[in-house]
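Today's session is about reading a structure prediction critically. Students often jump straight to the picture, but the first step is always the sequence itself: look for stretches that repeat, for charged clusters, for runs of hydrophobic residues. Only then move on to the predicted structure, which in these notes is written as discrete structure tokens rather than atom positions. Here is the chain we will use throughout the hour.
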Amino acid sequence: MKRRLVPAVAALILLGPLATPAARAADEPISAEEAAFDKAFTDAVKEARASLPVFWMRLAETPANDPDIFQLKVAFRAPKGGGEEIWLSDVKRDGSRITGRLNYDPESIPGLHRGQIVPIPEASIIDWTFKEGRKRYGHYTTRVLAKVHPEESAKAMAQLSDNPLPADARK
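Below is the predicted structure for this chain, in token form.
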């Protein structure tokens, strides 16, 4: 089965790839486990996008931040079809213009490389994170992936807050 690749939750959640919801042919069968994972991942993306204003507010409130404190996970389309989700750091927002620095070399998108600053269409953002104190907030998709890869995720999950949203941003 062909899988898209995303950054691993291991190694500070920012380095190597893990599988996300599968790209399948319309007639390819899907197991109940795969369907449940796909739904959980899709729901996580919806929650992350709905809570994106929390990320933007924190970014605006934090002048001259460390480039790794605020990060976005962005879905990029691959030229040969499919796509790749990539975490970007050093996020900047000036009005509707958003940029970020690629955290690693994409596997399926030629012309992009680690450290490159790229424009980010807001509609392509699928997750976010920021660090306050010793914990990271957000990481909605990471929390879903961690359930599928618990051994690889244990160290990274210890760095995440119990709730994706800080207490002052919860309803």
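Discussion point for the tutorial: Residues 32-50 form the longest helix (19 residues).
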